[in-house]
Amino acid sequence: xxxxxxxxxxxxxxxxxxxxxxxxxxxxxxxxxxxxxxxxxxxxxxxxxxxxxxxxxxxxxxxxxxxxxxxxxxxxxxxxxxxxxxxxxxxxxxxxxxxxxxxxxxxxxxxxxxxxxxxxxxxxxxxxxxxxxxxxxxxxxxxxxxxxxxxxxxxxxxxxxxxxxxxxxxxxxxxxxxxxxxxxxxxxxxxxxxxxxxxxxxxxxxxxxxxxxxxxxxxxxxxxxxxxxxxxxxxxxxxxxxxxxxxxxxxxxxxxxxxxxxxxxxxxxxxxxxxxxxxxxxxxxxxxxxxxxxxxxxxxxxxxxxxxxxxxxxxxxxxxxxxxxxxxxxxxxxxxxxxxxxxxxxxxxxxxxxxxxxxxxxxxxxxxxxxxxxxxxx
Length: 378
Prior knowledge:
This protein is α/β, with parallel strands linked by helices. It has helices at 12-25, 45-50, 56-59, 116-119, 126-135, 158-172, 195-207, 251-255, 293-312, 357-375; strands at 3-8, 29-35, 39-40, 61-62, 71-75, 78-82, 87-90, 94-96, 99-102, 107-109, 121-122, 142-148, 179-184, 210-213, 218-222, 227-230, 235-237, 240-244, 246-248, 278-280, 323-331, 334-341, 349-356.
């Protein structure tokens, strides 16, 4: 009898896990991949849409392209998760599994920051960048704030990237001298685990006259006065606010009873939850790595190896290292790269590869490889 595997969420983690299991044991599994969306997009493509470089349709990849042995994709909305029974209910059906993997990511809690929905713009959701694509051409002068509203948040380099790419955008329009750019972040450095990456970013901010305000969060927006309020009560006037909303686990995950302090706790070595046969990978768990696609992908590889080893009664795989790479947009067509490792040493550490045009090409290659691997070649 084939092993019934349910994978909830078709992001980096869900797609990589599904691909490995199909390649390795596709003839022995009945795997159902469920996502509420019809399409996938790489997080970094949102900047292309936001700044009008690409259309929304150009960066979306249809899940209909997934044709893999042992795999069935369902576009459905998950309404209930019973981790003890490994039973999942959607708006269309009920599924029972031998193995359940939760890879539903993190949602954005706009209501957690008063005034953000009414008086600010966020650039983390796809709807947010589509809206900003229409808003930005009408902005001609004044104060721009890129502000983080809560931690942890997805893709730690993204706020820095937004500030640097906004500089380029305003420069290209010939209005940079009429504008100020500030970046408000909760960390002391832009990328805390990698001092070299942080040093390069701080130099880039100074060179471009971008004000970096560390160790603070935006806690509220006053839409009527166009003011952002920080966690120490400081009021920052703005003409354009670009926010990173507070993150939370999806409501259906919270209602399942699996979360502790907001996220699903897992064993660090293999991403197992306290429920037998249930794993949690990516942004939805509290393992301690950044909430970024590449870390979900790395976790998926360990979970896939663990599932295969248990089916074959083989040896357990090496423990999850919590390592990965992140590309960092520096503007002017240049991209840097940071390698970060969270679990191998006594403290997280990272190394930096200087920004270059070659790394911009490497970043595109990174995306095209995964598109072909997860969705098949077009």
